């Protein structure tokens, strides 16, 4: 998480005024990808546990 916040901060500082709102998209996209990845990994692990318990 800290690299994305640092990237957002740097983008917010260095981007021209009309593009500063795009810096927040970095964090939003990170959380979407992170949540999707966690969901996929959790589902994959649950399927493996169900197969082992059968």
Task: Provide the descriptors you would attach to this structure in a database record.
54 residues; 2 helices; rod-shaped
Concise overview:
With 54 residues, the protein is mainly alpha-helical. It is built from 2 helices and no strands.
Write the topology of this structure.
Elements: H1 2-14, H2 23-53
Helix pairs in contact: 1-2
Strand content is under 5%
Termini distance?
A: 38 Å
- How many individual helices? 2
Q: Order of helices and strands, N to C? A: HH
Task: Report the C-alpha radius of gyration, rounded.
Answer: 18 Å
Helix content: over 70%
Task: Kindly name the structural category.
Answer: mainly alpha
> Uncertain runs with pLDDT below 50, 5 residues or more?
none
Shape type: rod-shaped
Summarize the main sheet: none
Describe this structure in words.
It is a single chain. The chain has 54 residues and is mainly alpha-helical. Helix content is 81%, strand content 0%. The chain has two helices and no strands. It is rod-shaped, with a radius of gyration of 18 Å.
């Amino acid at each position: 998480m800290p690299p994305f916040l640092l990237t957002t901060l740097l983008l917010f500082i260095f981007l021209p005024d009309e593009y500063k709102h795009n810096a927040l998209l970095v964090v939003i996209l990170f959380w979407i990808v992170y949540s999707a990845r966690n969901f996929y990994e959790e589902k994959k692990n649950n399927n493996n546990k169900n197969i082992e318990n059968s």
